[in-house]
Amino acid sequence: MTEASATSREQIFEMVRTHLSTELEIEPAEIEDEVRFREDLDADSLDLYELVMELEDAYGISMSEEQAAKIETVADAVDFVFTRLPGA
Predict the structure, then answer these.
(1) What is the C-alpha separation between 16 and 30, in angstroms, rounded?
(2) Rounded to 5 degrees, what are φ and ψ at 24?
(3) Residues acting as catalytic residues
(4) Helix, strand, or coil here: 5?
(5) Which structural domain range is residue 15 located in?
(6) What digits encode the pLDDT tens for the residues 16-61?
(7) Is 42 left (phi over 0), alpha (psi -120 to 50) or beta?
(8) The pTM is what?
């Protein structure tokens, strides 16, 4: 198993969940795949920008403003990262 394949979708989800629960001060159990950032979590542009920066730093990926604008749910963010990992 290579190091890149060692990162599972579940691990990425847990990182996103931890970040959002800390930043938005909500219970981690409230954050599921289908949860929408703006409508369900009341996240603003700065909250989403900080999440994108953390994902980029943690996983060595980059996300354009256009790509970030299309991410509406937790699953969108997790899948974006997972499909861009080396070896994915």
Answers:
(1) 12
(2) -100, 0
(3) 44
(4) helix
(5) 4-82
(6) 999 999 999 999 999 999 999 999 999 999 999 999 999 999 999 9
(7) left
(8) 0.87
